């Protein structure tokens, strides 16, 4: 026996509420206005959880940083040697002094400029080659042995030879970063191209889409989420490599500054530049994540965004 809903238990609708407005418009025979009102109500209902989730993420991140600084301070107290391990307060003061003098931003700008140039060069080489190898099995069988031979060799291992060839300057760190960033970009591009659903390619082909239109409309969007993952991996590897290269083969940059102040036994400034390396890397990765979500919104929830 079914139970009829009791109208006395229903939630009352006020005259000015969005739902009552949408119902009144629907009764008046204006379906377009009603649909708009209902969509507005749905959007408003979904906005609050997103804002709360964003605030919660930032709150968790701040707690994580606070815990890290707390552990750092405890280690400082346990170590008792400010030259080996300065306190967070002394490092913060060093960051402030370096920021006031402009030295901090100067070295950070030099390193990030080298990074951008290296990533651009690596992208221009690795992505087209990855599409070519992903679509052409013969080319992949021919090129892949050389790639797999060079890929296990660390970029840092090339620094002595690159120092002999390029000397101290901007070319050496850029070369090392291009080498390090090349392989994640190449392999993820190949994986992305081969991971495109063959049914989509067949469907486009049956509708007469071939050549460049097929590449632009089907293959590139399908491979882009994986390529963006490769780009983030390339950035992380290149950012670590530029510091190692600048320690030896550059007259400026964050790595050079770390080595310079290490020789002067100015540990707070050494840790200040190390902290800036982490901050710049973290902010750049956040920017890449935002760019990835903007370029590939269809990849949300797939593990590739």
Give a verbal description of the structure:
With 305 residues, this protein is mostly helical. It contains 11 helices and no strands. It is globular, with a radius of gyration of 28 Å. The protein folds into 2 domains: 18-69, no CATH class; 87-299, MetI-like (MetI-like fold), CATH 1.10.3720.10.
Structure characteristics:
11 helices; 78% helix; 305 residues; MetI-like fold; mainly alpha
User: How many DSSP E strands?
Assistant: 0
What is the total number of structural domains? 2
Distance between the termini: 50 Å
Q: List the secondary-structure elements in sequence, H or E.
A: HHHHHHHHHHH
On the 0 to 100 scale, the average pLDDT is 78
The Rg value, from CA coordinates, equals: 28 Å
Give me the CATH superfamily of the largest domain.
MetI-like
Q: What's a concise summary of this model?
A:
With 305 residues, this protein is an all-alpha fold. 78% of the residues lie in helices and 0% in strands. α7 (171-194) packs antiparallel against α9 and α9 (211-249) packs parallel to α10.
